[in-house]
Specification:
Elements: E1 4-7, H1 13-28, H2 34-42, H3 46-54, E2 57-64, E3 67-75, E4 79-85, H4 94-106, E5 114-119, H5 124-129, E6 133-134, E7 139-141, E8 144-152
Parallel strand pairs: 4-5
Antiparallel strand pairs: 1-2, 2-3, 3-4, 5-8, 6-8, 7-8
Helix pairs in contact: 1-3
Length: 163
């Protein structure tokens, strides 16, 4: 099914939240404490998403004939903050499509050398398929379990090569 990807705006905050909340409950919350789950769900409520949209976050949405199918957000220059795909669209390459789209947008101007993500245990293998590498094993912070991962896009240093 073809997806249209576009930049999100403030009017999308409720739809984004409506996509994220059930996915968090089903796929991420089982690996978190009750406190961590409450913190995560609170961070994905419509008002929180609205704050991100007005802050240092860039969101892109994938839509099809059925509506919102996926969301990706980059915090700052290089932190993959959200990457969620509706259950009906999972397994069709949409996460990769969203990632490549966001990566191309971030490459304009002063492109970052690397990206980071705090992957849920559920999504860790998907991020590995995108090229991210775990920096350590699972960790727990404030009741939320994740795996810090990094993707190096290009060498930071060219070494001592002579011209």
């Amino acid at each position: 099914m073809p997806y249209q990807i576009r930049v999100a705006d403030a009017s999308d905050h409720q739809a984004i939240s409506a996509l994220l909340l059930p996915l968090v409950e089903k796929f991420i919350a089982p690996d978190c404490s009750a406190e961590g789950t409450a913190l995560l769900l609170g961070s994905m409520q419509p008002q929180a998403i609205l704050g991100y949209l007005h802050g240092d976050y860039r969101y892109w949405l994938a839509e099809d004939a059925e509506g919102l199918a996926g969301v990706i957000a980059i915090k700052g220059r290089n932190h993959l903050y959200h990457l969620f795909v509706a259950e009906r669209a999972q397994g069709q390459g949409l996460a990769r499509q969203l990632w490549l789209y966001a990566l191309a947008q971030c490459a304009e101007g002063d492109a970052p050398d690397e990206f980071t993500v705090n992957a849920s245990l559920y999504a860790q293998s998907m991020y590995q398929h995108l090229g991210f590498v775990a920096e350590q094993g699972p960790r727990e912070r404030m009741g939320i379990t994740d795996v810090p991962m990094r993707l190096i896009l290009r060498a930071r240093y060219q070494g001592d090569a002579q011209p």
